[in-house]
Amino acid sequence: MNIFNLLKMKSEVAFLYETITVREAVERFNDHGYTAVPVLSTEGAYVETITEGDFLRYMIAGKISGDMKEMENDILISIPVKRDIRAVHVDSKLDDLVELCKTQNFVPVVDDRGIFIGIVTRKDLICYALDRYNLLKKETMNK
Q1: CATH fourth-level superfamily of 3-141
Q2: Where are the beta strands (DSSP E) in 15-105?
Q3: Is 44 in a helix, a strand, or coil?
Q4: What is the tens place of the pLDDT at every residue in 109-137?
Q5: 17 φ/ψ sector (left φ>0, alpha ψ -120 to 50, else beta)
């Protein structure tokens, strides 16, 4: 099984560039309603994944008083992220993908140059495994 078969392409995925302001990031986060979003360099390389919790910790740490205007002073990459969401190479083994999906809702996928090409969601991986299981079950019942 090739990871590429499970891939949601970059064009289908919400992501943020590391150079946008915190305000822009919060607004885009709210628009999409996701709890975590990949962050890319301006060249398109995967940098990290930022979560709702990262924004919350940023606000609690006293960086802002709640005024959206204050969020225009910091760029997104200035927010420290708590979790290290790791990416896989598009040619990685399915076992590597499964290991990461145990602790991540999605796994960013990169090409040979580290350029972000999309994600594999835990849901899609579980659906694939269930389909394979049902197929094997059906084959063994027919024997």
Answers
A1: CBS-domain (3.10.580.10)
A2: 16-17, 36-40, 46-51, 88-89
A3: coil
A4: 999 999 999 999 999 999 999 998 998 88
A5: beta
